Amino acid sequence: MERKDSPAFPADGRVAFVDFGRVASNSREGKALASKVEEVRARKATEVENKGKEVAALEAKLSQSEDILNDSARGQLRKQFERGQVDLQRLTQDAQAEVAQVQRELEQAFLQKAFPAIGAVAQERKLWAVFSVGESGLVWREPALDISDEIAKRIDATAP
C-alpha cells in the first residue's frame, strides 16, 4: 500500500494532504465500493446492449421487408422501430444517471468512513490542517506530507 519512494512524514509537519483517489484504490473498502459501481455499470451496459440488439433487429426487419410489406404494415414497423430508438436513447440516459447516482452515494459513504480516520491521524500527529489533493487547488506539495496510505490503512483497520 505505502509507496516506497515517499519520504517519511516530517516530525514537525503541521499540515498534510490526502489523495482520496489513492485512498480508495489502496483500501479494501474503496476497492469494494468501486466493485459495486462497476457491477451496476456492467448490468446497465448489458441492458442497453440488449435493447440495442432489439432495435437493430427491427431495423433489419424493416429494411429486409421493405418491398414485401404493404404501406400500413411498413408504417407500423417503422413506428415500432422509431419507438425502439427513443426507448434505447432513454434507457441509455437512465442507465448513465443511475450509475452516476450509485457512484455518488458510494463515494459519500466512503467519505463518511474516511473523515474519522483523517481526524484521528490529524489529532495523533497534531496537525493544523489536512487538505484534499484533488479539491484544494494545490499546485505543489511535499510528498512527505501525504498521509493517503495511512488513511487507507486506518479505514481498513476499522472495517468489519
Provide key terms for this protein.
single chain, about 160 residues, Protein Binding, DinI Protein, Chain A, two-stranded parallel ribbon, 4 helices, about 5% strand
The CA-CA distance between the termini, in Å, is 19 Å
Could you name the CATH topology? Protein Binding, DinI Protein, Chain A
Describe the largest sheet: 2 strands, parallel
Report the uncertain regions. Answer: none
Count of discrete domains: 1
Annotated CATH architecture: 2-Layer Sandwich
Class of secondary structure makeup? mainly alpha
Residue fraction in strands? 5-15%
Overall geometry comes to rod-shaped
Q: Write down how many β-strands occur, each being a DSSP E stretch of 2 or more residues.
A: 2
Count of separate DSSP helical elements:
4
Order of helices and strands: EHHHEH
Q: Assign a percent range to the helix content.
A: 55-70%
> What's the CATH C level?
Alpha Beta
Overall mean confidence score, pLDDT: 89
Describe the protein in words.
- The mean pLDDT is 89.
- The protein is mainly α and 160 residues long.
- It contains 4 helices and 2 strands, in the order βαααβα.
- The protein has a two-stranded parallel ribbon.
- It is rod-shaped and about 85 Å long.
- Helix 1 packs across helix 2, helix 1 packs across helix 4 and helix 3 crosses helix 4.
- It has a single domain, classed as Protein Binding, DinI Protein, Chain A.
- Helices cover 69% and strands 5% of the residues.
Q: Summed up, what is this model?
A:
This protein is mainly α and 160 residues long.
